[in-house]
């Protein structure tokens, strides 16, 4: 799916329609201090390996993770993601 890089939509901070820039959110590195990561380290330490069976296969589509940044107030908000196999930002 192709999507414009800039759209005009409602900004919850300005409470009006403003130009927004769309940016994809990239996955960051897992922090070692986060609860899930600590749990993972604890469970995988010692004898026996992975805590749970690996998920079977991969879904053909993933939900997109986008930020909408208002060009007026420079604040960003999110929207409910939609499913698509590939997202291209253009324009
Ligand atoms: Zn705004």
TrEMBL record:
GO function term, MF aspect, one: zinc ion binding
Cofactor note: Binds 1 zinc ion per subunit.
GO cellular component: ribonucleoprotein complex; ribosome
Residue ranges that the Swiss-Prot or TrEMBL entry lists as coiled coil: none
Subunit composition and interactions: Part of the 50S ribosomal subunit.
Biological function: Binds to the 23S rRNA.
UniProt xrefs under HAMAP family: Ribosomal_L44e
Family of the protein in this entry: Belongs to the eukaryotic ribosomal protein eL42 family.
Protein name: Large ribosomal subunit protein eL42
Organism per entry: Methanonatronarchaeum thermophilum
Lineage start: Archaea, Methanobacteriati, Methanobacteriota, Methanonatronarchaeia, Methanonatronarchaeales
Gene of this entry: rpl44e
């Amino acid at each position: 799916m192709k999507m414009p890089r800039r759209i005009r939509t409602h900004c919850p901070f300005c409470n009006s329609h403003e130009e927004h820039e769309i940016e994809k959110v990239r996955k960051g590195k897992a922090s070692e201090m986060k609860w899930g990561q600590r749990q993972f380290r604890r469970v995988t330490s010692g004898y026996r390996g992975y805590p749970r069976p690996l998920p079977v296969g991969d879904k053909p589509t993933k939900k997109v993770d986008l930020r909408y940044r208002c060009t007026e107030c420079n604040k960003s908000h999110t929207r409910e993601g939609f499913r698509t196999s590939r997202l291209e930002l253009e324009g």
